[in-house]
Amino acid sequence: MNVPLFSPLQVRSLLLKNRLVMSPMQQYLSPDGLVGAWHLVHLGSRAVGGVGLVITEATAVSPEGRNTLFDTGLWNEAQVEAWKPIIQFVQAQGAKIAVQLWHAGGKGSHAHPTAGFHYLPPTDGGWVTKSASAVSLDKQHTAEALTMTEIATLVADFAQAATRAVHAGFDAIELHAGHGYLLHQFYSALANHRSDAYGGSFENRIRLLLEVVDAIRAVIPEAMPLLVRLSAVDFSDEEHAWHLADSVRLVAVLQQHGVDVVTASAGVFSAPDRAKLVPSYQVPYAEKIKADTGILTGAVGLITTPEQANELIATGQADLIMLARELLRDPYFPLRAATVLHADTPVPTPYTRAFPSSGR
After folding, report:
1. Where on the phi/psi map is residue 310: left (φ > 0), alpha (ψ -120 to 50), or beta?
2. Where is each NADH:flavin oxidoreductase/NADH oxidase N-terminal domain found (predicted)?
3. Dist. CA 337–CA 287, nearest whole Å
4. 246, HSE (Cβ side, Cα atoms, 13 Å)
5. Which residues touch 24 (CB under 8 Å, ≥6 apart)?
6. CA angle centred on 185, ends 184 and 188, rounded to 5°
7. Any idea what DSSP says for residue 70?
């Protein structure tokens, strides 16, 4: 049966078997930036469960790019080697895998969530955080503004991490440019108060993101997809907040620089009104960006049922469904969705007895 949610999608040379994607979710289990057995099971079980694409948790491009001391990294070769068996296992299940690269900027240097997630000063094992401007993003400390030299180093860090991602065997790269982290700190005037080439005008505030995109495109294969996760809106009524029209304008530029897919999330300098947290509440961002630019988009935001996810693809509101908490609750959501929607999808041979409609 032809079911839109289970239709394949070609992105450059990458063929995804369906439209279901495991969204990045921090695990806080990576001392020294190293992944291990937990990540093999965490990511691997969703690949066994049938997603077309697995995206790793946000992975720092430098030690100072982390949010906590327990975030994954790709700033050295030991981390590359740790990723390889996980990548190979995910791919062996018929899924593709992308690494999400990030820098937390002024939201970095925090204790583990179980220890209170408070700011760690350098004297307690943390570091001096850097942002677009000298602002406080966690209400606990004030970051320092990046110098021009530090910005150049930062761009190089992203390029080197992307090179390591290729060597590790990842199928694609996603840039985390949302949720109040460093790249978002530059393009949103809520955090960017600079008056140099990286501040002020729209063109200046998006400059760092474009430089990072260009640096990554220069070191990865032409056939490798590049994705970007944006905060499509700032959830703020302030005059200088980032709005959906800004995102549409930005995405049109990102396309020209070789970005293939945009995931339209939102926040997190501020949070939405809880009354507005309804199923698919962020989908209109993806729909608008897709309609106005033609780029492939990923939809997020309280997508929890097979029927809901399939409708979003069938009606063209988005091209990919990014699942986070629902995949924590049910790693086998895709296999269950295929049963509910009467779709043919591959099932791992040891699991076929539980999915009699798999066609085996």
Report:
1. alpha
2. 5-339
3. 23
4. 19
5. 55, 56, 57, 58, 100, 174, 176, 229, 324
6. 75
7. T
Q: How many of the other CB atoms lie within 10 Å of CB of 352?
A: 13
Q: Which of 127, 200, 186 is nearest to 155 (CA)?
A: 186
CB burial of 255-270 (b: ≥16 within 10 Å; e: otherwise) equals eebbbbbbbbbbbbbe
332 is an active site residue: no
Total residues belonging to the chain: 360
Q: What is the rounded CA–CA span in Å between residue 45 and residue 244?
A: 35
Q: Which amino acid is located at 68 in the chain?
A: T
> Given 28, 119, 181, 187, which residue is catalytic?
181
The token pair at 192 is 């960017």
Along the 360 residues of the chain, how does pLDDT read in single tens digits?
789 999 999 999 999 999 999 999 999 999 999 999 999 999 999 999 999 999 999 999 999 999 999 999 999 999 999 999 999 999 999 999 999 999 999 999 999 999 999 999 999 999 999 999 999 998 899 999 999 999 999 999 999 999 999 999 999 999 999 999 999 999 999 999 999 999 999 999 999 999 999 999 999 999 999 999 999 999 888 888 999 999 999 999 999 999 999 999 998 777 667 777 788 889 999 999 999 999 999 999 999 999 999 999 999 999 999 999 999 999 999 999 999 999 999 999 999 888 866 443
Whether domain 4-358 has CATH 3.20.20.70: the reply is yes
